Predict the 3D structure of the following.
Amino acid sequence: MTLTIQSASDDDAACELYGLSRDELAERFEGVELLCRWFAYDESGIPVGVAHATDRADGRVFVTHRLRSDEAYVPLLTAALDAIDRPVNVTVNSALTDRMADVQALGLQHELSSLKYDVPFATALAVLRTPRGPRRFDIASATEVDADLLFELDTELRGDVPGTDGWTGNRSWFNDEMSSPEFDPAGYRVAVDSESSELLGLCRMWRNPDGPALGLLGVRRERRTGFVALELLRETLAGSREWGWPTFSVHTARPGLQKHLHQVDARQSGGFIRFLRP
């Protein structure tokens, strides 16, 4: 197939490839730092793929695709790499070995591997130990704490996660998450110091249409030696279990957490590889 690649804006082609109306397309990319789009057309001028580059809140540029033909993947990525004079990240499903070879042939290097697991609620709750003695913090719903303080905590904790280090925060994205259909207070818990009212950590489970997904479990560094994370996770699992699903999913690039997941009968169900063009 002979392809033509262009970067000129083509909303009609974008709507066709994403399967969205113009209003839906605008809503999907609202608040996203979109650097550029590249379109691939076949010999008849029919759009067969689009790639877009976005500037994330941790300063990383990601190029992602929406394809009608796999033949458009490499030409679109090549055009993006040629146009962007900053480091570029690309993620590839770990099952797509041919695509990984294509990415590496373009000079991108392996940066990290993340595995997806499906975890039984019952098993995970059964192995969580009950802390001894009284705790010096309370557990609240995300809707019961100050939104500005929660945004600050969210930004700090994302910056400690491998792959999002350097996260500076995007309030528009944060607000969108908090008002999305996937948000449910029962699955978004926050630890609050009983004396100072400082927010210590959070655990959030997204109520996705295809099942609950653990988005983040994190505690401020100075409080990671106690039971804050344990209690956050226990209450989040107890709340989100009531949604009726037997399992929840989690993605992690941390080998230590992957080991613990195997110990609670978690089943590996996919993953992705992230590549970098320095």
In short: The chain has nine helices and twelve strands. The radius of gyration is 21 Å. The chain has a mean pLDDT of 93. Residues 121 and 247 are 5 Å apart (CA to CA).
